Amino acid sequence: MYGRKASQLLKEFVSGEPGQLTGFNNDLFAQVIEECDGNILHLQALLRKMQEEGSNNQTNKNADHFGALVHHLSLVRNKRCLMAYVYNRAEVIQNLGWTIKHADLPAAVKEKLSISENEYFGKHSSNLQSYMLDLNLDLAIDMVPPKDPYIKVRVLEEIGEVLLSDQIANLAMHSILFLKRVDAESFISQGKMEELTS
């Protein structure tokens, strides 16, 4: 039946956790495109046949007319499903651009993306970084307004002495510190620190 593969593609995306990507399903995506190509060929053949017979679509609604309608609606539905799949994945990739400061994605995420999605992330991330450099402002910090400017953090990796905005701090492994949120955000996003909530 027409449209089942496209529907399956969307169900696969929706079944994952919100904000998380599953691997890009190249096989199913290609099968849906192949089905669209078949619909176009059938639709063109039926329209040609109807034109040769000189049938009027308004008065003479025969099997060819309804066949053309089925292929047209199937084509439109498949296109909408493919666009929804690509758009929702692109939204998640854009959000990654805000949370991952550097253009290198972790290997676990990179293997889930298609080649074009990898290029899209790279371009989006570099545009975002250049825009923030032009403004001389990091827009990715404090996506949610903080309750307190200082946070309690645990250092997960040996970082050493670092010049922070108001002090020099020795960020030794397993040390627990109170730092300004602005200073800690970059280390947290790199996985070198974790915020302690209690």
Give a summary of the structure in a few sentences.
This protein is mainly alpha-helical and 198 residues long.
Q: What's the average pLDDT?
A: 84
Largest sheet report: 3 strands, antiparallel
Percentage beta strand = 5-15%
Uncertain segments are none
Helix share of residues? 55-70%
Task: Please state the CA-atom Rg, rounded to the nearest Å.
Answer: 26 Å
- The total count of strands amounts to 5
Distance between the termini: 55 Å
Q: Which structural class best describes the helix and strand composition?
A: mainly alpha
Provide the spatial order of strands within the biggest beta sheet: 4-1-5
The shape is elongated
Secondary-structure element sequence?
HHHHHEEEEHE
Total of DSSP H or I helical runs spanning 4+ residues? 6
List keywords for this structure.
single chain; 198 residues; mainly alpha; three-stranded antiparallel beta sheet; two-stranded antiparallel sheet; 6 helices; 5 strands; elongated
Helices and strands, with pairings:
Layout: H1 4-15, H2 26-53, H3 63-99, H4 107-110, H5 115-135, E1 150-155, E2 160-163, E3 168-171, E4 176-180, H6 181-189, E5 193-196
Antiparallel strand pairs: 1-4, 1-5, 2-3
